[in-house]
Amino acid sequence: MGAKERKESTLIGLKYPSFRDKAWKTGASWLDGKRKDDGIEGLWRVGDKLYDLAQWIGNHPGGAEWLTLSKGTDITEAFEAHHITSFAEQLLPKFYVRDATTPRSSPLTFKPDGFYRVFKSRAREALKGVDFHKPAKLSNFIIDSLCAGTLALCVTASATQSWAAIIAAAIFLTLTLIAGHNYIHLRDSFRMAYMDLSFLSSKEWRITHCLSHHLYANTILDFELSAFEPLFDYVPHEKGFITRRLSWLYSPLVYAIVYFVSGVKRIYSLAFEWCTLDYRDLTPFLIPALMCSVAPPSLALVTWMKVIVISSFHFGLIGVNAAHHHPDIYHDGDVHREDLDWGLAQIDAVRDRVEIQSSPFLVLTHLGWHTLHHLLPTVDHSYLHLCEPAFEQTCKEFGVNTDLWTQWKLFKGQFMQLQNTEPKKTPNTR
């Protein structure tokens, strides 16, 4: 959406984001816009109270980065969704500064008898038998195996120039990165840097995916909804011929350059926004360095680019068609349900796929249990199935449909949504 066709959110009360009409969007610019819109002045807001968490940054169990990134913003949604137990809620008053004097930029609610709070209390009970604050051993085994396979296949591809090895390396790299997505939501660990083996940035993803998309899915505050505009425009409003009719034709090219665009943004942010490096910024050099050890550098780097292009296409194909886009899924512009419970807003913006749910491997590598993942983002994917009975019970009480869709329905629906110019006039709910 360009500035001339700016539209207010149909989630009544959601402030139009300052970042959204910029042509060049990064995680840092999204945060800058949110700080401007929230007006917290260097504090952290939860509900209608302001807190100074500066002294807690070094002690935060999830890692300091979550608090350093979110400083100066309203973290209500993140605070609620990221903390399953009541420990954080009990600790928070120690850092109270004063009451907020302005309304929140988001109208979403967390009422004690609302969908999300009721579900979370049941999920907490369902997870009592596992240490859900740590990743599951099964998830660790899967992602470590995928990473080892990626390194071995990339070295083999460099040494042999075999297309079979190149394609296999690209597939393994994609699956490693998607599995790594599980870890960027969790406490800091070296496994979150698996996403950085390509040109993607786990730090950037913690902003654009964890703090933006996951908390405001399919609204104008969702970075991922606007990331591909104007090439992919999912908001139901008047669109040009190219976007509506030709997106299916150029989408493979867009998928194939996702890593490269991310790499350029990463370099830009490091140079002009973050102005600092950490160990994750060196991770993208690991695989090409290994490949150069078994082949002339020029040949190794050409092989690496082949792996990157194929993997980027594969990553885009899975990610864009995973869960969020179909005319029967809520997108900002559609009429929103009257109940502004945060959990219900998440549920309306996502669907799950029948082909993925039954396999722990596919769940981790193909973004499975996606609704539960949105509701409980800091719970490892391998534990989410434990919360299904609580989810089903709560959905039944609140009249929410939990039918699974097929991957084909979502794949077709993604292109149908790109063509969609007619917002739903009645609430687009499950």
From TrEMBL:
<dbReference type="Pfam" id="PF00487">
    <property type="entry name" value="FA_desaturase"/>
</dbReference>
<comment type="function">
    <text>May play a role in muscle cell metabolism.</text>
</comment>
<feature type="transmembrane region" description="Helical">
    <location>
        <begin position="165"/>
        <end position="184"/>
    </location>
</feature>
<keyword id="KW-0472">Membrane</keyword>
<keyword id="KW-0349">Heme</keyword>
<feature type="transmembrane region" description="Helical">
    <location>
        <begin position="246"/>
        <end position="265"/>
    </location>
</feature>
<dbReference type="Pfam" id="PF00173">
    <property type="entry name" value="Cyt-b5"/>
</dbReference>
<dbReference type="GO" id="GO:0006629">
    <property type="term" value="P:lipid metabolic process"/>
</dbReference>
<dbReference type="InterPro" id="IPR001199">
    <property type="entry name" value="Cyt_B5-like_heme/steroid-bd"/>
</dbReference>
<keyword id="KW-0479">Metal-binding</keyword>
<feature type="transmembrane region" description="Helical">
    <location>
        <begin position="285"/>
        <end position="305"/>
    </location>
</feature>
<protein>
    <recommendedName>
        <fullName>Cytochrome b5-related protein</fullName>
    </recommendedName>
</protein>
<keyword id="KW-0812">Transmembrane</keyword>
<dbReference type="InterPro" id="IPR053100">
    <property type="entry name" value="Cytochrome_b5-related"/>
</dbReference>
<dbReference type="GO" id="GO:0046872">
    <property type="term" value="F:metal ion binding"/>
</dbReference>
<keyword id="KW-0408">Iron</keyword>
<dbReference type="InterPro" id="IPR005804">
    <property type="entry name" value="FA_desaturase_dom"/>
</dbReference>
<dbReference type="InterPro" id="IPR036400">
    <property type="entry name" value="Cyt_B5-like_heme/steroid_sf"/>
</dbReference>
<feature type="transmembrane region" description="Helical">
    <location>
        <begin position="141"/>
        <end position="159"/>
    </location>
</feature>
<keyword id="KW-1133">Transmembrane helix</keyword>
<feature type="domain" description="Cytochrome b5 heme-binding">
    <location>
        <begin position="40"/>
        <end position="101"/>
    </location>
</feature>
